[in-house]
Design brief:
A hairpin with a 2-residue loop joins strand 6 and strand 7. It is globular, with a radius of gyration of 22 Å. It is 30% helix and 23% strand. It is built from 13 helices and 15 strands. Strands 2-1-4-5-6-7 form a six-stranded antiparallel beta sheet. The protein has a six-stranded mixed beta sheet with strand order 8-12-13-3-14-15. It has 422 residues and is an alpha/beta fold.
Length: 422
């Protein structure tokens, strides 16, 4: 049940609470802490399974996704332009990465990040001089802990011969058993990426500059990933549900898949790859009803892109999508977000996703009564610092729902925060 004019039945709340208690025992990240990074002077976010961040342009939403990307690179042992780019993070010089708000206090020398769950945590602070920046950031402090056991704990007092640009946790990980909670947390972080799909790459008319499996960070390799997802339906009930739901969201399509560019009506100038996305239009006459991704709507391509992230065997277990509402009309945005939550919450393997959006109707697709789904508003304070606040289902929100208010209307009217002051 979504947030509507009706109260949540007690049994639904109990069910959601039980699901959340189970989720708390798995490897997902419960908490992210960022300090002195860009506009995030001091931000703590308690994450769920599906996390949606709304706010004005320039409020700091992308900074938050990229902060987790910097932590990911640190967990993998190296923080430089290459390791950041591979995660979809915009590289930046120390003068732009380090918080620089006017303050009586001394400007922070380090940027700091931490991620944790009930079983383990990883924390790091990084340094790079402003006047003479180095290609790689130096590890100033690093803590990797499982329960009360400290697996890695380094400080400025680490041996002088140790390479300051190399993280210790990534090296010590070889000694951990595969089922260690601390190792699972570290690997979750290491695999994190920020996707930012673009229409030319999704259509196949522009090359992917950041390829990876199953899709590139800009949406490249989508035809191949779709084919793999479709082929897995017979053995994977979750993949079949995702594929069927995706087709239902594209109301004009009878089917979808991928094919060779030479077998479909397509201008030679419009194909940048041998394989392209294929759609069959349910309304056009046969033999003239097959379209490529180049001719289809960009909204349909975004549906398939998110379906791949939710259903493909090789999708990262922790990822983010910046501007997830790209190319979606409001009603499709609402329906797709509802399906995406269902895909992630009911997947056989635990996955976690962070999304940013500017489309109000996305909010109406969120089942916020489930603790695993979380909505956050992101805004700038009077001093320009980014503030992140979770929107929780409380009595005041339920009262508004009973009066007929939707989440989208509450946001647009300024009752949730995270709107531009214009």
């Amino acid at each position: 049940m979504l947030l509507t004019g009706n109260r949540f039945p007690d049994d639904n709340r109990t069910s959601a609470a039980c699901l959340y208690s189970v989720w708390k025992r798995v490897r997902m990240i419960d908490k992210l802490v960022v300090k002195s990074f860009k506009s995030l002077e001091s931000v703590t976010v308690e994450l769920g399974h599906v996390n949606v961040f709304i706010g004005a342009n320039g409020s700091g939403k992308s900074n938050l996704l990229e902060a987790l990307g910097v932590l990911s690179a640190a967990a993998d042992g190296k923080v430089n332009d290459l390791t950041l780019l591979n995660r979809g993070v915009r590289p930046g010089v120390p003068a732009l990465y380090k918080t620089s708000f006017p303050s009586k206090k001394r400007r922070p020398a380090h940027i700091s990040f931490a991620a944790s769950n009930s079983q383990a945590q990883y924390r790091v602070s990084l340094h790079n001089p402003l006047k003479d920046p180095k290609p790689a950031w130096r590890f100033k402090t690093e803590l990797w802990q499982q329960g009360d056991e400290k697996l890695v704990g380094s400080s400025p007092a680490r041996p002088k011969k140790a390479n300051p640009e190399q993280g210790l946790a990534a090296l010590e990980a070889i000694w951990c058993a595969e089922d260690d909670p601390a190792l699972r947390l570290l690997r979750e972080l290491q695999g994190y990426v920020v996707f930012a799909p673009t229409t030319p790459v999704l259509r196949g008319i522009a090359p992917e500059t950041q390829p990876r499996e199953p899709v590139g960070l800009s949406g490249g390799q989508l035809p191949k990933a779709i084919l793999e997802l479709l082929l897995s339906r017979d053995k994977n009930a979750h993949a079949k549900r995702v594929c069927d739901d995706a087709l239902g969201l594209i109301d004009w399509a009878k089917s979808y898949g991928s094919t060779l560019a030479t077998t479909i009506a397509l201008s030679p100038a419009a194909a940048a790859s041998q394989q392209v996305v294929r759609f069959t239009d349910r309304y056009m006459q046969k033999r003239r009803n097959v379209l490529s991704g180049y001719d289809a709507s960009e909204g349909a391509l975004i549906v398939l892109f998110l379906a791949v992230l939710a259903g493909h065997d090789f999708s990262p277990s922790l990822c983010a999508v910046d501007n997830a509402d790209h190319g979606l009309n409001p009603r499709l945005a609402r329906a797709l977000m509802g399906k995406l939550c269902d895909w992630y919450l009911n997947a056989p393997q635990q996955h976690q996703i962070l999304l940013t959006t500017h489309n109000p109707l996305v909010l109406d697709g969120l089942p916020l009564q489930d603790e695993r789904v979380r909505l956050f508003t992101v805004s700038r304070t009077n001093s320009g610092r980014t503030a992140v606040r979770r929107v929780e289902v409380d009595e005041s929100l339920l009262a508004k729902a009973e009066e007929g208010w939707t989440l989208s209307r509450l946001w647009v009217m300024g009752h949730l925060g995270g709107v531009p002051n214009v």
